[in-house]
Amino acid sequence: MYNNIDDTLLFSEYYRQWVDVYKKGAIRDATMSKYLMTQRWLERLAPELKISQLTRTSYQQLLNDYAKEHERQTTLDFHHQLKGAILDAVDEGLLERDPTRKAIIKGKTPRAKKIKYLNQFELHTLIAHLELCEEPSWDWFILLVAKTGMRFSEALAITPGDFDFARQTLSISKTWDYKGEGGFLPTKNKSSVRKIQIDWQIVVKFSELIKGMPEDKPIFVNDKKIYNSTVNDVLTRHCKACGISEISIHGLRHTHASLLLFAGVSIASVARRLGHASMTTTQKTYLHIIQELENKDVDLVMRTLSGL
Predict the structure, then answer these.
(1) How do the pLDDT tens digits run along the chain, 308 residues long?
(2) Are 260 and 131 in the same domain?
(3) DSSP secondary structure of 168-212
(4) Nearest-CA neighbor of 145 among 215, 202, 107, 183?
(5) Which of 21, 99, 193, 243 is deepest in the core (most CB within 10 A)?
(6) Cβ-count burial of 28 within 10 angstroms (0-12 exposed, 13-18 middle, 19+ buried)?
(7) pTM for this model (two decimals)
(8) Is 115 domain-assigned?
C-alpha cells in the first residue's frame, strides 16, 4: 500500500487504510463492522502510536489496555484483526520484526451467561397459543423456528422451494440480509448449509400455507424493513399471554436444542441440525444441560449397579 517508508505514519492510519484496501467489499457487513470497531478502539487507546514505534512491548501494552474493559475472547479477536494488518506491514518493510509474536492475551473474567429457553410444557403452551391464519405471519415464523432451531437470518431466507415435503426435509443454504439492504447472503459457515428433517405437522401446515407462492421468494419477507426486535415483541406478547418464561427468537433456537438433548439425541446430531461448525460449539453453548444429563446418567449407573 505504501511506496515510501514513513516514520511518522500512525498505526491507526495504516490500519484504517489496510481495512479499506483488503477488507472492504471482501467480507460480510457484520464482520466489517467488527474491523471498524477495532479501528475505533485503536484510535482511542493509541492515537499517537506510530507504526515505526511498534515493538513487542508497545503492542503488548495496547492489548493490556484493551483487555481492561473486555473479556479474553474479545481481546483475542482484537489481537487477530490487528495482527493481520501488522503482518502485512512487516511484508512491506514498514516493520523489521513481528511485534505480535508471543503476545499474551488477557481480559476480564467472563460473566456467567445463563441461556434462556422454554421447557417442553412451556413450548407446547406457546405453540398452542399461536394464531396460524391463512397468510404468512410472524406466528408462522415462530412455529418454524421452534420446530427447526434455525437462526433468525436463516429462517427469513426460507423460500417455498427449500421444502421437500415428500422427503420431509428443509434445505438451509442461505441467509437474509436483514441488517443491511435486504437480499440473500451466504450462511454463517459451510456447516450451516444443511438439510434437516421436519415433522409431519410442519409438512401438513406449510404445504397449505405456501401453495401458489413463488418458489424462489422468501416466505416471510415483504417490502418493509425487517427488525429482529419486531419479531421478539410478537414472541414476548405470546409468552406473557401464556404465563410462560419470556424468551427471544434466539431463545427458541436454544429451546429446540435443549429439548433434543434432554430427549437423548446425540450432541453430534444436534450440532449438525443447528449448523454448528463443530461439536465443541454445541458443547460450550449447552454445557449446563450436558452436565444435568450427566448427573442423570450417574443416577442411572448407580441404580443399575445396585440391582446386580
Answers:
(1) 554 556 789 999 999 999 999 999 998 888 899 999 999 999 999 999 999 999 999 999 999 999 999 999 999 999 999 999 999 999 999 999 999 999 999 999 887 666 688 999 999 999 999 999 999 999 999 999 999 999 999 999 999 999 999 999 999 999 999 988 899 999 988 999 999 999 999 999 999 999 999 999 999 998 889 999 999 999 999 999 999 999 999 999 999 999 999 888 999 999 999 999 889 988 888 887 887 777 777 777 777 788 77
(2) yes
(3) TEEEE--EE-TTTT-SEE--SSGGG-EEEE--HHHHHHHHHHTTT
(4) 202
(5) 99
(6) middle
(7) 0.70
(8) no
Grid coordinates representing 240 are 406473557
Question: Across the strands, what pairs with 96?
Answer: none
Retrieve residue 8's grid coordinates: 511518522
Identify whether 40 is part of a domain: yes
Q: Give the span between the Cα atoms of 128 and 82, in whole angstroms.
A: 50
Structural domain contains residue 287: yes
Alpha-carbon span 174 to 187, nearest angstrom: 5
CATH number of the structural domain spanning residue 218: 1.10.443.10
Which candidate, 190, 199, 255, places its Cα nearest to that of 174? 190
> Rg of the chain over CA atoms, in angstroms?
24
Task: Domain of residue 196: give its range.
Answer: 120-299
Whose CA is closest to 184, among 217, 213, 141, 144? 217
Query: CATH code at 78?
Result: 1.10.150.130
What 8-state DSSP symbol labels residue 242?
Answer: H
Query: Are the C-beta atoms of residues 17 and 1 closer than 8 Å to each other?
Result: yes
